[in-house]
Amino acid sequence: MGSIIPNHIKKIFKFKIKESEINVDEKAFLQCPQCRSMIYQKDIDKNFGICPECEHHFRISNKEWENILLDEENRTKLFEEYKADNILKFPGYNDKLKSLKRKDINEAISIIEAKINGIKVLVGIMNAEYIMASMGAVVGERITLMFEKGAKENLPVIIITRSGGARMQEGIISLMQMVKTSASIKRFSDSGNLYTAVLTNPTTGGVTASFAMLGDIIIAEPEALIGFAGPRVIQQTIKQTLPKGFQRSEFLVEKGFVDLIIKRNNLKSKLTEILKIHNYK
Amino acid sequence: MKENDLIKKLLIINEKAKKRGINITKEIFNLEKKIGIAGSVKRYNRKKTKDAWDHVKLARKLERPKPQHFIDALITNRIELHGDRYFKDDKTIYGGVGYFDDIPVTFIGTRKGKDLKENQLYNFGMPNPEGYRKSLRLVKQAEKFKRPVLFFVDTPGAYPGIASEEHGISEAIARNLFEFSAIKTPMISIITGEGGSGGAIALSVAEKIIMMENSFLSVISPEGCASILFKDASKAPLSAKSLRLTAEELKKQNVIDDLILEEVGLHIDRKDGFDKLEISIRKNLKEIMSLTSDELIERRYKKYRQIGV
């Protein structure tokens, strides 16, 4: 996330304080896109990535998600050996994959076996820094393997979703991952286990229209954009302005497609309650 | 007789002669000259090597038969059934029961219409959530009465509109994928024209996927892909090629089971396509109807399970 520091503030820092004295970097301050106040980055970090002024939920890294949700001990990343490949030889995709490799990000979802307040779980966290957390072959495979493992070992599954949808560069393969993941959730569901989907900003396209909407319980973060078609596409199609709050979490609760809106700072305790009432220990 | 019909007849005669190893190019040209359409067959054949974008354009051609025509041609004694039993009847989805040969089947197709008035009535082939929920109801009904399901798909995608989102288009598509993966009755999906993204795949969970030669199945429309990835909507032909969305490419990728060749294109000769498709459906139905329901579900699961890494 790029920081948006107004020029007048930059000027103040540049001329009145030497960088060596206070170590001001671009990331020290953020302007909240919702309430427009300037906030010290560390205050946001301390507060689960939530704006202390208006409770806007900032996008946070996978590492931060892990720390917010999971107990510190015994976190094991699973299925990391599956890596993206330019199956269709799609123009520009090789370069994109290479540049991400340098950044050391391993695909758009990581699957972790861990504990939440002592309860063993399988957690999938989508990574927005990896091609908008789009779903291609690897994401589909890892999710499917997670549900297959969960069904076999009677482990509950939680997925933190955020995604631009199916990954265009993998063409039909990406589209078919919608079927593949949904079919594995059906089998998981028939095994009597609990799948909780946590939808965060933004969850759209083929991800919403497959595993994101198939949770036994569906939780959303406040004001997250959740939908199938993007707002711009809808606007272009119908040529009308969209109603206020359209496709936001609160809208989805009202329309009956999301169970609960939970603030990030309460998520771990709420998930613990949900796991316990489903007899996971 | 209309000019188009004449050209069509000539094309068919020409193809049949070719198959028997007879060259009648000269005779055809003479005939064309006599009726004032000289060179039509030659012009058609010159355009025969088609690229991905040509297939996309043919798939969308207004004169191309739509799923409703396939259904009316291949399924007899049809009874159309309406409604999702929750909210309304989505006219875009044409569903019901009928006979294929003498086998009772459930058919589900998308409607597109043949002119602007019909296009509007059928929302240009873009179903709303109610349409997908109707299809789920009919598939569950087919499962109960142990009859096979035939899908006929030609849609640009699910409808991107306000009501569509309000009524949970994502949930409706996801629910179809989830439920269809474990339905205990044989299912075949036939892509007849456009196979647009999630809206098409929600009607394509089946043991067998059959595609007409000039149809396509894609994660996104070539135009959408061009404007997002290449920042230029006019690069749609390039994205059509890059997405590898044609029936032929998908057969190579082992995503589909059968490819029905169209000799001169369905917009000129639909009967040829219908006849070949009928044979393919018959063959595939025979194969999957001999399986137990457990075998069916296992086979369907594996079919999608193996696509990817």
Structural notes for this entry:
The complex is a heterodimer of chains A (281) and B (309). Chain A has 281 residues and is an alpha/beta fold. Chain A has helices spanning 7-16, 19-22, 41-46, 62-69, 93-102, 137-153, 171-190, 205-208, 231-238, 249-255, 264-277, and strands at residues 29-31, 38-40, 76-78, 109-116, 119-126, 157-163, 195-203, 217-220, 260-261. Chain A has a seven-stranded mixed sheet, sandwiched between helices. A two-stranded antiparallel ribbon of chain A has the order 1-2. In chain A, helix 6 (137-153) runs parallel beside helix 7. The longest helix of chain A is centred in the middle third of the chain and has 20 residues, at 171-190. The relative contact order of chain A is 0.11. By secondary structure, chain B is α/β, with parallel strands linked by helices. Chain B has helices at residues 3-19, 25-35, 40-46, 52-60, 67-74, 116-121, 129-144, 162-166, 169-180, 197-201, 222-229, 236-243, 247-252, 270-289, 293-305, and strands at 76-81, 93-100, 103-110, 149-155, 187-196, 208-212, 216-218, 258-260. Chain B has 15 helices and eight strands. In chain B, strands 1, 2, 3, 4, 5, 6, 7 and 8 form an eight-stranded mixed sheet that branches. The mean pLDDT of chain B is 92.
Query: What is the CA-based Rg of chain A, rounded?
Result: 20 Å
Global mean pLDDT of chain B: 92
SS field, number of helical segments of chain A: 11
The geometry of chain B reads as globular
Calculate the terminal CA-CA distance of chain A, rounded to whole Å: 37 Å
Following the backbone from N to C, one meets helices and strands of chain B in this order, namely HHHHHEEEHHEHHEHEEHHHEHH
Q: Percent helix among the residues of chain B? A: 40-55%
